Amino acid sequence: MMDRGFLDWPFLPDDAAAVYDRATAFATETAPGLFDPRDERREAVADACRALVAAMGRAGLLGVATALAAPLSARRLCLSREALARQHALVDFAFAMQGLGSGPIGLFGSDEQKAAHLPGVAAGGAIAAFALSEREAGSDVAALATTARKDGADYVLDGQKTWISNAGIAGLYVVFARTGEGNKGLSAFVVEAGTRGLTATYSIDVTAPHPLGVVVLENCRVPARAMIGAPGDGFRIALGTLDVFRATVGAAALGFARRALEETIAHVSERRLFGARLADMQLTQGAIAERATATDAAALLVYRAAWRKDSGHRVTRESAMAKLFATEEAQKTVDLAVQLFGGLGVVRGTVAERLYRDVRALRIYEGASEIQKLVIARSLLAA
Questions:
Q1: Which one of 12, 324, 350, 367 is most buried, by most CB atoms within 10 A?
Q2: Which CATH number among 3.30.1140.32, 1.20.140.10, 3.40.50.970, 1.10.10.10 corresponds to the domain 236-382?
Q3: Known catalytic residue: 270?
């Protein structure tokens, strides 16, 4: 049975239970009819994401993920991601990318840009993508090589992005490119799919399937009004957006961990070994106690970061701590589930096996665990 006690924590919004329940209802009632989780072909996964985003728009779920009607609430984002991830990673992915992909527009865009793009994202009619990473510039944003040169009233973009979620199915891409030298030489642009010179393909297969691929920009011309903020604001926009969404990765990890615990407890309560229930063995009890404690500790870190962000604080260190601890501990919790399920834990398509594939990527994307440690340490040493 699901533990709902955390929904009463005093630093969560008054509508925390409503936000969580709405996301849970979508994931358990609507989403299962939109895709077959066993079909991991690229075409099927891409179609599933399109269907999920459209249905989330109709259900009003994407209002939480965009800054259309109100400022982004990090706590509501976290609550939604935790609830969705608890049911299926692809459902969480579809929701999260509408937020991350449109985040730079909602957080830093002009009124004109918000009016032009956010309604479509919130309605589920436009899929969004965050095009930052490159082959030699992932965690090291300063190494970004894609360029944007001024040409009259336009900018011309050239370069290649990789590891881009929603590549090939997005309707708009927020592309980060170099307009000058150093960190202050990065800028951000909204580039609509179909713009001449932009080619995006879903071309990378990973353990937890979702649309992931490459975006190529060749003499891609966009008007100057496509720039988000001012020239040189790109580094600030990228990190400011990640400050909001990095903690939500920890929330997704929480969803995986809670589901793994739930499945593990149900299994060991029924599975018998040497004439006793697996749940009656002290080794099992000790392992479950450790994982439950770690999960609650991760939740406190995640929702602390989200609460401080909603309170107007900079949360670079808190978000890094939340992502680092929640994802690392969720991996251990899912691993325990696989171990206690025994042979069933590695049968493809079972909940434990799926969670094992789903959780692994969270320790890498939006800043690997090692990068989070650097962020935390540098913050403390600079204080």
A1: 324
A2: 1.20.140.10
A3: no
